[in-house]
Design brief:
The protein is 35% helix and 19% strand. The protein is α/β, with parallel strands linked by helices. GO terms for molecular function: glycerate kinase activity.
Length: 375
């Protein structure tokens, strides 16, 4: 009997990664009774990362922390065998803005640092931080403050939250950083290569997504430049041009320059954390997927990462999706043999989203018929 691994990302706005995996597994088992199916929902470090790792066997550890605009939010980190996974989007992300109202000048990453501190206090030896979906452009300053860094203005007062306030930064003191930061392995899931400053930097490229207009982008970039100047003086190393420094409003910069983190592509890092490679050994097939297989998929999104890892073990890969705009040649380039979009089964997009679960089961039956009968 063949062994199949089902490792999809979420179908945004429709199903979580765990729900996608469950429906695909149900369809496969219905088509091939007794089939051995391992479900391993995946994520790339952004929204849905916590759900994915908890579905894979991590335990959820609740934390109350500061939301992006100061209100308390109930969030969590996930832990297994001393490894903690923190999802920035779940505490400092756009989805945590009250009423969905952006506050680009004052939004802060403080809550992310609070969740990290909770994991450090609990004795976790390895910290994995996913930094997609940030609501703030504060260079990670709020995160650093929550972890014990002191940021002062010219009058010796603690700097208020947000990227705009960084223009008034006069002194930083990093001697009080959480002592366990020196002991743990800190890795950041990061899928962009932007520097911190300038036309490709955090404010210019990602500020508009967070509600910043041209004048606010200039303010934020000036604040980030001041923050970078003092961090460079304090640490002796200029990390502003490090690829990924501009990720998540500059959280990537603070993670590397202040906390000593290593940046890694999100899906590759999460596959390691989830134990994908041991699971895929000896498999007859891997089924991956996401809501939309499109041009973005070609640039390292979850299905491409899953396919690359599966191909290392010589395992064929197919994908499910809500829709697919990629050609067979483009899919083959990233190691996917075939795609099964739900729009092939139900052309109405609204019905596709509403009935995604049953449609995935039908797609899985087709996959079993075409890819497993000879296995």
């Amino acid at each position: 009997m063949p062994h199949v691994v089902v490792a999809p990302d979420k179908f945004k706005g429709s199903l979580t990664a765990a729900e996608v995996a469950r429906h695909v597994a149900a369809g496969l088992r219905r088509a091939v009774p007794g089939l051995s199916v391992a479900t391993l929902p995946v994520a790339d470090g952004g929204e849905g990362t916590l759900d994915a790792v908890i579905s894979a066997g991590f335990r959820r550890v609740p934390v109350r922390a500061t939301g992006p605009t100061g209100e308390p939010v109930d969030t969590a980190y996930a832990e297994r065998d001393g490894t903690a996974v923190v999802e920035l989007a779940d505490v400092s992300g756009l989805a945590r803005l009250p009423g969905g109202r952006p506050d680009p000048l004052r939004a802060s990453s403080r809550g992310t640092g609070e969740v990290m501190a909770a994991a450090l206090d609990a004795g976790c030896a390895r910290l994995v931080l996913g930094i997609g979906g940030s609501a703030c452009t504060d260079g990670g300053a709020g995160m650093v403050q929550a972890l014990g860094g002191v940021l002062l203005d010219r009058d010796g007062n603690e700097l208020p939250p947000g990227g705009a306030a960084l223009r008034d930064l006069a002194r930083i003191d990093l001697t009080g950083l959480h002592p366990r930061l020196r002991e743990v392995e800190l890795t950041v899931a990061c899928d962009v290569d932007n520097p911190l400053l300038g036309p490709r930097g955090a404010a210019a490229v990602y500020g508009p997504q967070k509600g910043a207009g041209p004048a606010e982008i200039a303010v934020l970039d000036a604040g980030l430049a001041r923050w970078a100047e003092l961090v460079t003086a304090a640490t002796g190393a200029d990390r502003t041009e490090t690829p990924g420094a501009g990720a998540a409003g500059g959280v990537g910069f603070a993670a590397v320059a202040v906390l000593g983190a290593t940046l890694r592509p999100g899906i590759a890092l999460l596959l390691d954390v989830l134990g994908f490679r041991p699971a895929v050994k000896g498999a007859a097939l891997v089924v991956t997927g996401e809501g939309s297989l499109d041009a973005q998929t070609l640039h390292g999104k979850a299905p491409a990462g899953v396919a690359a890892a599966a191909r290392e073990h010589g395992v064929p890969v197919v994908a499910v999706a809500g829709r697919c705009t990629l050609t067979a040649a483009e899919l083959a380039r990233i190691g996917i043999d075939a795609a099964y979009p739900l729009t092939d089964l139900e052309p109405d997009p609204d019905r596709c989203m509403a009935e995604a679960g049953p449609l995935l089961e039908r797609a899985a039956e087709l996959i079993a018929a075409r890819h497993l009968r000879a296995a």
